[in-house]
Amino acid sequence: MFADPQFLMSCALFLPVLWGLGLFGFPSRAVSAIRWYALAGACCELAITVQLAGVALGWIDASPAVNASATSLRNDILLGMSLPWIPTWNVNYSLGVDGFSLPLILLTSLIFALSIVASWSIKTHIRGFLFLLLLLETGVMGVFLALDFFLFFVMWEVMLLPMYFLIGLWGGPRREYAAIKFFLYTLAGGVCLLMAMLMVYSASGGSFDLLELARMAQGQAPQPGMDLDQGMALTAAMGDTSLQWRVFVLLLIAFLIKLPAVPLHTWLPDAHVEAPTPVSMILAGILLKLGGYGFLRIAIPICPLGFAEWAWFMVALGVFCVLYGALAALAQSDFKRLVAYSSVSHMGYVLMGLGAFRFQELTGAVLNPDFSTMGLSAATFQMVAHGIVSAGMFFVVGVLYDRVKHRDLRQFGGIASLQPHFSAIAAGIFFAGLGLPGLCGFIGEAFSIFSVWHVDRFFSVGGALGMILTAGYILWALQRVYLGPTYTGPNREYLTEINFREYTVGYLLLAFAIGLGVYPAIALNVIEPASRQLVQQISGSQERQLSLNRASIESPLDK
Amino acid sequence: MSLGAYLAVSAVLFASGLTCMMTKRHALGVLMGVELILNSACLNLIAFARYTSLGIDGQVFALFVIVIAAAEAAVALAIALNYYNNFLTVDVDRGDELKR
Amino acid sequence: MLAWLLPFAGCVVITVLRLKLSRLSAVPGWIGTGSLLVAFCLSLFSAGLWLMTSPAETAASSVSAEETPGIQAAKVGDDAAHETGYSPQRRLVGHWYSLAKFGEIDFPLGYAIDALTVLMFVLVTMISLAVHAYSLVYMADEQTESYQDHHLDHSPGETPERPGRFAHFYAALGLFTFAMLGIVLANGLLQIFIFWELVGFSSYLLIGFYHERRTARLASMKAFLMNRVGDVGFVLGMTILLVTCGTLLLYPVHDLNGNTSGSAPMALPEAFQAAVEKVVPSEENHQPTDLLPSGQGISYALLVAAGLGLLAGCVGKSAQFPLHTWLADAMEGPTPVSALVHSATMVAAGVYLAARIAPLLLPEALLLLAYVGVVTLLLGASMAIVARDLKLVLAHSTISQLGLMLLGIGVGAWEAAIFHLITHAFFKSLLFLGAGSVIHTTHHEQDLEKLGGLRAHLPLTSLTMLIGVIALSGLAVPYVTIFGESLGFSGFHSKDAIVSGAMAFVLKNPHHILLLISVLLGACLTAAYSLRLWLKLFARDTPVDPALQQVHEGPWLMTWPLVVLAFFAAFCALGGEEGLVSTLVEASLSPAPAWFSGSTDEVVSIQWTNASDRHAVHGTAGAMALAAAWLGALIAWALYGLRAISSKDLSRQLTPLVRLASHRWHFDTLYRGFLVLPILNLARHTAWIDRILIDPFIDGCARFSERFSHASQWFDEAMINRFFDNMASSVWAWGLSLRKAQTGHIRQYVLLATMAVIVLFLILFAWMPGGRAGP
């Protein structure tokens, strides 16, 4: 049973929320039991996703029956399943795993487990808090696993509500403002997503299946076995450049909000500053990745032609985000706000990597496909790395805040002599964020910079300049917080060395940061085939489109 | 005698009944005016029955009118009696309760 | 390779043990030192193996047997040679694992071992060993629970205490050694970059070791950021090379038989040359650029820019103009660190890299490098001459000497540059450790004006430092040879080599005469400041400051490293350019690419020199350099030894120059004013945009929609509701007014009914005349 991908994927999807329902069997006084129970659930989830990864990568043999049923999907994704959900509207319950989603799924279950450990510091209404956390995990898993646009959208909205309450109920002083801001921003994105979904639905003749949509958008028949003539009309509708352009713009807005990219990013600092530590860890570690993942799973595959026109813009925006976020981080005096802006800056590298495409003007093929592959892989890797690093950074800030009850950088200094051990962990995590080679932040940054050179060399220069600024604000923050004469600010007497629980989280995150930095191939080998395939798809669809255009120009009489 | 003469008598009767209704403040006076008007109508009906093709219908109708007038007189007298019980008067101008 | 892993293991062990051990223990130090001792022995052993097997082509297998088994390794003999006619190089190149692979683009991690690597291994492990041992004593006061830092300028009343960080120190030192060896060992620019940054990181830790001091904090940050600026260039250079050449490997990977395996990618030098060959003809024909398989044109400027980018990395790491300001500040670290990191090894990494990538540098880049080197040489020397702080003199001297090395690379004499790098490493670490011994024994007194006359108290230190000073200034006794050797210490030989390189270059390109003049001037200044340093410290018999009467030599762990280093500083260059070290260096560096063999270039016309040219002018150049050095030494002697000229008078006459130099040419102010503050301002404005523009915009949107909803509420209430209300109430009012007609008087009703009938009849008859109304 545990080698059956269908079971595993559904289990990964629904286990958290079912487990969370079990929380209500506990009396609300049994705080400790509730915590351990939730942690056990998150660990089960982690085990299941690891098992899923094993099956997906072929380390563990799936049962033969499943193999047979999944072969039709195998060309596009590693594992897949599909059951009818609402047959009237052709909505399916289809889940799948591929090179893009697998690392992110693992990251999700890991970060959720760690954030539940970190939520030991939450004292009020712990049962509700943990339930919302587990519900959120189901939503996130659903987004990462969904292969059906409708399911994706539903899960996208499912995430919204727990997050709203987590910020709005357990947050800081301005939590209501932050929560409503977060909610409205994301909802605006959700509306764009909905519109795009409906446009695609009508153009494709009523399909929500992402794989089908992608095939149609590239000018192939919707089903692999189907004759091309049958699907031709639908394919033509989906392959229409102007439709794809409009859909892509809508998706762009939706995902840029989530990523977040610069003009649409201001919900992030507020939400982070007000959110409690575990929620910040999840928000930065996981939820931001959904934007990038949305590009990889939806926006790029189903609108390759629209993407081709917007790729340049995405890189430019990415570079801008890198520089803007770093500069803004440099000017912050609130520790958590600084880390939040560092997220903006780091996610800029993701955007850079995603857009690292250039097309040949005559044939429309992707120029230097290896570099575009590198860009997509770097973007995915950067998402994973940033998931670990930013979760770690927020954890560090949270641990500090739990003790001294303030986050003002100007009042810190000299923490290192009071918490030498913890400071070492913090320095490690922050240096990973800085992009020190040997730690995971470096790989994504470096490869994004490498990959955008062929789009425009100034982008590489800009990205590289971002490296200086990043080093600047991180070093400055470290210096202001940890170094210097012994801390004499407020609440000094509470500033004790961290306990075992906090060590566990810190060391685990640091270990992953080092592991991914020293041997990134463990993730990149999974990501790379998927990104290469995506590059081929884009290249193919663009070539086909241009040849169609040329044909229509050359022989207008045929029409 | 022509139809016109009957009609003229009836008109006079009608006019005097109407005048009686309008001028009398005594409830029984008003009732008498009503009787006069009814009788003028009866006279008309009978005259039309005699001189036109209305035939026996007009006379039957007149009989109905007389019966109804009797009933009406009984009801009206009962009202007047109650009215008097309540207001200790039979002046119709004083009875404006329905206005409210 | 084992030697490489050992310091790392030591570092890890120390880090782990730190949890268990008390702060008072010296065990971390002994672990670190022990692991380095083993590492040093191993690298000596491998060097010995290398030398013994060097003549035989079949040596490869025996050497690789010494390596970890199972790794594909091979000696690369005449692979690249047969095309261009280079002298065969022996090189072990191997491959560990792939960092990432995107289609054709592979980022493997591997190793390339050649004579230079072995040499650098011996050098680094040796100096590191010396420093480790030395620090056992120097840092001993860190083995305490309450270390009192006297340099803290924050609280004047009390001396703040903090726990000692002995283990921390050794962990960082071990990490540094590991990273440095990684750079030396790496095959491929990306791998070099990884360790390059790690070196910067450990240097950050070590500079900021006394992080309670504000200056140390700032210095460590400055060092890292300055390096980072250079690294941006490095990254961009790598990017260009990756795009144009498709690989970042320096040397191709070979299997045991010396054949490249089928799909082995081209290594950088060849790929780069291929790119250049593609580009040059197209420029001649003024045609659009060639298309590479990747489909993108390459322009010549791009290739130059690649070189410049990589050089920017070197410039940053080696503290060259204009990124030199961090090195002087880096002296905030403990003195042994300065000896190891900031003089002997880390800063040399820039030069090392520049020499490794020299074949990738086009003439323009090299020329620029030469001028950068010259400017740095003079700047550093001028600052060293006026510096009052003992360590600052040495730091500026390091900057200046590194400039000299880069100049050597710039004029094409990179064997000479590496040669000088090695000799410099020995004598500069010697000088720093000597200075450390002075500082240690005088309880952290670094001001040259307050020190003096320590010879009697510190005989061994003064003697070894004298050797170092002489080596640094390149002094020698002219025309005297003993056993066929000219009588000079190591610095003499290596400096000679560079000067002759510069001279040969200038002879061929007379309009770059400035280079030669500056080099000679630099040599003169070097001699002057180094002698000044020694004279100030040791010259007189009695200390100037009575407080210094108590000083004495440190224990054997401090003095023995000095003696060993002094030995090497004196004699490692034995034999000059025909000597062992120099030959080893020459044997391992990449041969000059095609455009060096006299071909002229389009953009800058430069005649490149070769070894024979340099050899031809060697005698003259040596004589000139020596003369310059003696001149400088005499000046120093006159000023500080004999006091024939009052140094105060001289400095008064040269006030503006002195002031400029002692303010370090105002570079810090300049950077602060033109870079740091504007960037911070920009940052503030960016945050301002968020706070003042975007956020209020969003909030404004929210408020607008709130207002709008209020407005629509008002519209609902005020307009629509009121309309219906009004309608209802007007109907009501109408009814009320009609009620007045209902008097309740029956007689009136009858009257009215009658009148209405009459009126109706009248109307009927008025409208229908002729009596037709009737039936």
TrEMBL record, chain A:
This is NADH-quinone oxidoreductase subunit M. Residues 83-137 form the NADH:ubiquinone oxidoreductase chain 4 N-terminal domain. Signal peptide: none annotated. Residues 146-461 form the NADH:quinone oxidoreductase/Mrp antiporter transmembrane domain. Belongs to the complex I subunit 4 family. One of its GO terms (molecular function) is NADH dehydrogenase (ubiquinone) activity. It is a multi-pass membrane protein. InterPro entries: NADH4_N (IPR000260), NADH_Q_OxRdtase_chainM/4 (IPR010227), NADH_UbQ_OxRdtase (IPR003918), ND/Mrp_TM (IPR001750). GO terms for biological process: ATP synthesis coupled electron transport; electron transport coupled proton transport. It is found in: Endomembrane system; Membrane. Keywords: Membrane, NAD, Translocase, Transmembrane, Transmembrane helix. The chain crosses the membrane at residues 6-24, 36-60, 100-122, 129-147, 153-170, 182-203, 247-268, 280-300, 312-331, 338-359, 379-401, 422-444, 464-483, 504-527. GO terms for cellular component: endomembrane system; membrane. Its main location: membrane.
TrEMBL record, chain B:
The chain crosses the membrane at residues 27-48, 60-84. Keywords: Cell membrane, Membrane, NAD, Quinone, Translocase, Transmembrane, Transmembrane helix, Transport, Ubiquinone. Its EC number is 7.1.1.-. It comes from the Bacteria. It catalyses: a quinone + NADH + 5 H(+)(in) = a quinol + NAD(+) + 4 H(+)(out). One of its GO terms (biological process) is ATP synthesis coupled electron transport. InterPro entries: NADH_UbQ_OxRdtase_chain4L/K (IPR001133), NUOK/Mnh_C1-like (IPR039428). Pfam families: Oxidored_q2. It is found in: Cell membrane; Membrane. It is a multi-pass membrane protein. Belongs to the complex I subunit 4L family. PANTHER family: NADH-UBIQUINONE OXIDOREDUCTASE CHAIN 4L (PTHR11434:SF16), NADH-UBIQUINONE OXIDOREDUCTASE SUBUNIT ND4L (PTHR11434). NCBIfam families: PRK05715.1-2 (NF004320). NDH-1 shuttles electrons from NADH, via FMN and iron-sulfur (Fe-S) centers, to quinones in the respiratory chain. The immediate electron acceptor for the enzyme in this species is believed to be ubiquinone. Couples the redox reaction to proton translocation (for every two electrons transferred, four hydrogen ions are translocated across the cytoplasmic membrane), and thus conserves the redox energy in a proton gradient. NDH-1 is composed of 14 different subunits. Subunits NuoA, H, J, K, L, M, N constitute the membrane sector of the complex. This is NADH-quinone oxidoreductase subunit K. It comes from Planctopirus hydrillae.
From TrEMBL, chain C:
One of its GO terms (biological process) is ATP synthesis coupled electron transport. It comes from the Bacteria. The keyword Transmembrane helix applies. Residues 186-505 form the NADH:quinone oxidoreductase/Mrp antiporter transmembrane domain. Residues 102-143 form the NADH-Ubiquinone oxidoreductase (complex I) chain 5 N-terminal domain. PANTHER family: NADH-UBIQUINONE OXIDOREDUCTASE CHAIN 5. This is NADH-quinone oxidoreductase subunit L.
